[in-house]
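Slack export, channel: ligand-projects

TW: morning all. Re-posting the request from yesterday since it got buried. We need the structure predicted with the small molecule present, not the apo form. The ligand is fe (ii) ion; the SMILES is in the block with the sequence. No rush, but it would help planning for next week.
GE: picking it up
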Amino acid sequence: MIIAQISDTHIALDTPDAGQRLSDFAITMADINTLDPTPDVIVHTGDIVHNGRADEYAEAVAILDAAQAPVYVLAGNKDDRANLRAAFAKRGYLAPDGRFIDYTVEDYPVRLIAVDTQSSVSNKGDFCPERARRLVDAIDAEATRPIAVFAHHPPFEVPVGPDPINFEEVEAMERLRRTLQHSGRVIGVFSGHVHRATGGWVGTIPARVAPSIATTLRKGEYPAHMKSRPVYYIHRFDPAWGFATEARIVGAAQTARAA
Ligand SMILES: [Fe+2]
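GE: finished. pasting the full token output, ligand included:
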């Protein structure tokens, strides 16, 4: 099973780099379509748009519609739950209403669980007792297959970020960490938000953070020739070893052919 993970496209229509953000997103989706073998599924780990606006979601949906694999999306801190639900309603996997955007995908050897870490008070994450109960229920709904969890905010300390803790309250992050370890069946946690390629642990569960697809917002040092090349992740699942994560540089194949 192969999962392509993209994150933090931050589509905006009225910033100086709006065109670059649209281009970064579009060339990433085109690159994913060239993968051989093709991924089974594509997951966008949130901050799809920058201002939560319906017209921004319309642009994002138009770009995602080009994907050959099924696409699932999460709500980041910049997303608007209601506008996100409306924009992706036709895909059929989001509940039409409710407080949180969390769901499971049961079509693959690894179950996928999307977690909602949006806070009502800041750009940092939240994970309240109600969400913990919902995650426990989702984990316990099936007892045989391994689980990959997707959450916009990384549930571990990221020392290289501007603030190592990406949750409003440390207790909320600890609640998410405990819940992820509740069954022993979660084998990978995949996040975004910090716009930087990094990783950590939730107990013994490996956790990966994808950099922002928006190259103008990406953190970390990249050589000049990569400035306008988005980076996304390919997570390949092996039953014996779990997930092996590869960072994919958009445009690398074309450059190699031209050389
Ligand atoms: Fe974010």
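GE: first-pass observations. The first strand starts at residue 2 and ends at 6. Residues 47, 76-78, 152, 193 surround fe (ii) ion (CB under 6 Å).
TW: perfect, thank you
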